[in-house]
Specification:
heterodimer; A: mainly alpha; 4 helices; extended; B: about 500 residues; alpha/beta; two-stranded antiparallel ribbon
């Protein structure tokens, strides 16, 4: 099931709003802001919909191993402050 | 991860072993301080100080045959004459630079050398805009570590260079109007000058500065170097501190030099590199090897050869029957070099392609959240990359980070078990992995525009890259060729513009 444009627009606006970002700071429509060159909000929404439709599914479908249990054991992310501190010393 | 550890250990051993490598074959050099160079200027440089490489200028200054004040004056004259056309600089520190050039105390191997610094490096008391509305009034209270090290070595910050807004695209105004041109086609702004370290490249190619520094997240040192006939060195992640550089992507930003040749790049990186307590990414790494020695050509019976026996990996699809093929043929003729065909690792296209490249984007939105909340328009034409980053979920981000480790293992085994350096057709894969890359000039196209290529190496083996570059440049002269000066006055037609979608397509 593919989300519709309206559903994605709602998701985008809601996600940005949760971060405190108001897309309506951009000018309405598709014309860029004449002063700053920033895109119109419809242009931005179209770009963001395209991003979500391509990037999120492709990343999320990636499998580190065909066996889900073994996939969990592959390439744990190296984001550990304790290890990093010891390594640096 | 045992393979990676083995490579790191081997890298450390090579770095330590540099002290017993063959000596440079110049018996006339006397009493050269450690870490400095002694390079007799070429004939072409004797009548034009701006033609001097960094190594040549540093040699003359150390010998007392060149006054840094005169060197600086020569560059300021060219900036006055031509930067209206090039638009390489955002800001020129003419008076301050003159004061510094007059300073008598010798501080190091860069003593009196005028440098162009990308405008995303903090410079104490000097505006640092990252070419963005968001930083228009920002004056850092301190220098970036890399800037502090360059000036501690005697370098003079001649000016801050124009760049892609927030280091995204080729240099434009923050609203997208093209500014900096390629020094090889100064009257035609449609000719790609490389981005985002565009001004740094144009400043060196146009002989407005002896050398320069830029940053690379997705090709921003190697691309402008290739476009403008320069030698660019993107070091391994952590080799140079990022402290005091406006971030674009924490795990992928790399500071490094855009230089006139391999030796100049080595001198610059030697000054910039090393541990910095202010940047944890620089700590606990293999020591910086003797880069200057690595970049000094070795000759035996007047013939250039590789400093170390080196297997040069050739990936499928690299040879083009033109300049790249000629590059490979030239390398193959250098004693000590051996070309080997290497396969691309499994899932190369997927793991280095656009989608997996997108996992860099949250790393630019997160540090800019206050700006995104307060002033979306302030991002100008660059805003879409930041908004995309804000939308990517943590699951996808973590998958992307884990995939980098998988890709690194494959690169270290599938590529680097078979070769010591490898040619590249794009900077992005090794930018994703934080591996070192060297950009070299390899010829010109039918329009007289420079052609370049990229070599990559294992982590922290910049010396390997420099040794190959030095040998190649010992038998070629592409790197000595300079563009003609602009002939038209600095009256510009309406410049082309990039809109937000253009920037999205090309952003690093």
């Amino acid at each position: 099931m593919q989300p519709t444009d309206d559903e994605l627009d709602t998701l985008i606006r809601a996600r940005l709003a949760l971060l405190g970002i108001d897309l309506d700071q951009l000018p309405p429509g598709t014309e860029p802001d004449p002063e700053t060159g920033s895109p119109g909000r419809e242009t931005a929404l179209a770009s963001l919909r395209s991003f979500l439709r391509t990037t999120v599914p492709t990343l999320s479908e990636y499998r580190f191993d065909a066996d889900p249990a073994l996939a969990q054991q592959v390439a744990p992310p190296t984001l550990y402050p304790s290890n990093t501190t010891a390594w640096q010393r | 991860m045992s393979t990676r550890r083995a490579f790191l250990a081997r890298t450390a051993a090579i770095g330590l072993g540099a002290t017993v490598l063959p000596a440079v074959g110049d018996a006339t050099a006397t009493a050269v301080p450690q870490g400095e160079v002694d390079v007799e200027p070429r004939a072409a440089a004797r009548h034009d100080l701006t033609e001097l490489t960094l190594a040549e200028a540093a040699t003359l200054i150390r010998r007392g045959r060149l006054d840094p004040v005169d060197l600086l004056a020569a560059y300021l004259a060219r900036i006055e004459a031509f930067d209206g056309t090039y638009q390489a600089f955002n800001l020129v520190r003419a008076d301050a630079a003159r004061d510094e050039a007059r300073a008598a105390a010798r501080r190091g191997p860069l003593h009196g050398i005028p440098l162009a610094v990308k405008d995303n490096y903090f410079t104490a008391g000097v505006p640092t805009t990252a070419n963005s509305f968001l930083f228009a009034d920002f004056v850092p209270p301190w220098d970036a570590t890399a800037v502090a090290r360059l000036t501690a070595a005697g370098g003079i910050v001649l000016g801050k260079t124009q760049m892609g807004p927030l280091a995204t695209s080729r240099a434009t105004t923050p609203s997208g109007e093209v500014t900096t041109v390629n020094a090889w086609a100064p009257e035609d702004p449609s000719v790609y000058p490389g981005g985002s370290s565009t001004g740094s490249a144009t400043a060196v190619a146009g002989r407005l500065a002896t050398s320069s520094v830029g940053t690379q997240t997705g090709g921003s040192i190697t691309a402008p170097s290739n476009a403008q006939n320069l030698t660019g060195l993107k070091p391994t992640m952590g080799r140079v501190s990022l402290h005091g550089i406006v971030p674009l992507t924490h795990t992928r930003d790399h500071p490094g030099p855009l230089a006139r040749d391999t030796l100049d790049a080595a001198i610059m990186l030697s000054a910039m590199a090393g541990p910095d307590p202010a940047d944890p990414r620089t700590l606990g790494l293999p020591p910086v090897p003797d880069l200057v020695t690595a970049a000094t050509p070795v000759r035996r019976r007047d013939r250039a050869r590789l400093r170390w026996p080196t297997r040069i990996g050739v990936i499928p699809g690299y040879a083009d029957g033109g300049a790249r093929t000629a590059f490979l043929d030239t390398l193959a003729d250098i004693p000590g070099a051996r070309l080997v065909d290497v396969p691309l690792p499994a899932e190369w296209e997927l793991l280095t392609g656009r989608v997996f490249n997108d996992v860099r984007l949250p790393e630019r939105s997160e540090p800019f959240l206050p700006h995104l909340r307060a002033d979306l328009r302030g991002f100008g034409v660059s805003v879409l990359g930041w908004l995309r980053g804000a939308l990517l979920g943590s699951d996808e981000y973590l998958i992307g980070q884990r995939a980098k480790l998988v890709l690194l293992e494959r690169v270290l085994t599938d590529l680097f078990d078979r070769c010591d350096v490898v040619v590249q057709t794009s900077p992005v894969p090794f930018d994703i992995l934080g591996l070192p890359e060297l950009a070299l000039p390899i010829g010109f196209d039918d329009d007289g525009l420079p052609l370049g290529t990229i070599l990559g190496a294992r982590p922290y083996e910049e010396d390997r890259l420099l040794a190959v570059g030095a040998a190649y440049q010992a038998v070629t002269d592409w790197h000595h060729r300079r563009p003609a000066d602009p002939t038209r006055p600095a009256v510009r037609r309406t410049p082309p513009r990039l809109d937000a979608l253009d920037v999205l397509e090309t952003m690093q």
